[in-house]
Amino acid sequence: MIAPVAQTSVCGDVREHRLKSMLLRSNLVIRAKQVVLPHGIAAAAIHISQDKIATVADYEDVPAGSELVEVGEQSIVMPGLVDSHVHVNEPGRTEWEGFETATRAAAAGGITTIVDMPLNSIPPTTTRVGFEEKLAAAKSKCSVDVGFWGGVVPGNTSELAPLLAAGVVGFKCFLIHSGVDEFPNVTEGDLRTALPELTRLGAILIVHAELPGPISRTGIPACPNVAEKEIGTDRNVYPTEKEIGTDRNVCPTRYETFLASRPRAAENEAVELMIKLAREFGTRVHIVHHSSSDALGELRAAKTAGLKITAETCPHYLTLASEDIPDGATEFKCCPPIRERENCEQLWAALGDGTLDMIVSDHSPCPPEMKLRESGDFLAAWGGISSLQLRLPLVWTEAQRRGHSLDDLSRWLCAAPAQLVGLQNRKGKIAAGWDADLVIWNPEKQFEVAGQRLHHRHKLTPYEGKKLSGIVEKTFLRGRKIYDDGEFVGGPRGVLLTS
Predict the structure, then answer these.
(1) Which CATH number fits domain 88-420: 3.20.20.140, 3.40.50.150, 3.40.50.1700, 3.40.50.2020?
(2) Is the pLDDT of residue 413 over 90?
(3) Which entry of 134, 157, 219, 284 is 20 to 30 Å from 404 by CA?
(4) Among 460, 462, 457, residue whose Cα is nearest residue 106
(5) What are residue 147's DSSP bridge partners?
(6) Upper half-sphere CA count for residue 30 (Cβ side, 13 Å)
(7) Is residue 30 helix, strand or coil?
(8) Span 42-58, pLDDT tens digits
(9) What is the pTM of this model?
(10) Mean pLDDT (whole number) for 85-90
C-alpha cells in the first residue's frame, strides 16, 4: 500500500497576478488526496481555466460554481504522460499503425503527448516536403497532442534548418540499417557533416546507437529487417538453411541466436562514438532505447564531465529478461534486443542514479504477419514491440518492487521526456500555467494484459497474460476529459505541436 500523505499547502506561484484572474473564471477543479507535484506528493485542488492549470490550491479550496471532480482516496493524480519515442508510421504504412489508433491507445494509457518518429512512414520526415505530408496525414485524427522528430540521413544537411523552422522538435539518426531503405543510416563521416549544422541550430540529435561492425563480426547471418520485403515475400534476404546449418547454436527459432546476433559491443562502441562526437562538436546528443549495461559507465562519466548527453530506456528492457523468452516467440524481438536479467537490474540502478534519464515506449508496431509467429524465425521477423498503452503499469509494477517512488515515476514518464523535446514549460508537470494534462490512476488495482483490449491497431504483445498493477481511470487533455473508465470521450482533440 502507498502510505497516506499529509495535506499540505501548495498555493503560490511567481505568476500570481496573472493566475488570480484565471482563478476567478476557473471552470473545473480536480482534487485528490494524492497529487504528484514538482515538490512532492500532496493533497491538492487543481483549478483549471480553459486549457491551462490556473493554480494548484489547498484541498478544501473549491470556488463556488466550479465543476468538481473528486478523486478516490486510493487514486493518484499525475501529469499526463509524455512519450517522446513513438512510431506512428503514417502516411505510407498506416496499415502498421496510424495516428487515430496510436493516439487512442495513448489516451487509454494516460499519455497526453506523443512525439512521432521520422520513420517508418513514407515519405520519412527528412525533408520539409515530407514533413508537410506528415502534418496533412495527422490533421484531425489525434486524440492526444502530437510532436514530430525530423531525421538526419546522408545528404540532407540542407533540410535541417527548414525542418526545424517548420516545427520538428529535433532530429533522429541510425548508425545501422534502420530496417527501411527510405531512411538510410549515417556514418561517422555523415555525422561530421551534419553535427556543425545541428550545433549552430541548437538542435538535439537522438541516436539509434548500434554499430554494424560488432554485429557483422558475430558471423550470424541476421536478416536486414528490410520492410520492402514485408511479410517475407522475398526470402532471399533471409538466412537460408544452408547458411544456418544444423548447429543448434545458430538455430533461428532460438532467442539466444538472435541475442548473439546483436551483441552489447554494437551499442557500447556506438555510445563511445557519440560521446566522442558530442565532446568535439558540442552538440546535444540523446541515446534512444538503451539496453546495454556495459556502456552505462561511459554515459555516467560523460554526464559527469558536463557533456550535453542524455539517454533513455524502455519498458521491455526493464520488465523482460532473455532467460524467460521461449523458442519461436518472435513477439519479443526488438532492436537492440532484450538482454539478460542481470543487465535489466543494472538498467534500473542507472535510472535510480540518473545515468538514464527517462523511460519511453519505443512503440514500434507492424502487422502480425511480419512477426512470422508461425515459423518462429527470430532472424527474419520484424523487430519492434507495441507497448504504448501499457507504459505506465509496466513501469510502475516493477518500479515499486525496487522501492522507487511516484516522484521517480513522474520524472521518468512525464517531466524528463517533456524537457527532452522542449515542452518543459507546458507539459510534464502539474503547475500553474502548464497545460491541464492529467491522468487519474489507481496504483493498487491489478489487471491481466489481454491483447484484444489494447487500442493499438495490432494486438500481438509479449505481455499477453502478464499481471500488472496500475489502472488508468481518467485522462484529461488541456482540461477536457478524453478517456473515462474504459470509454473515449468526444472526438479527436489533440493538436499538432509545431510551435
Answers:
(1) 3.20.20.140
(2) yes
(3) 284
(4) 457
(5) 115
(6) 28
(7) strand
(8) 999 999 999 999 999 99
(9) 0.92
(10) 98
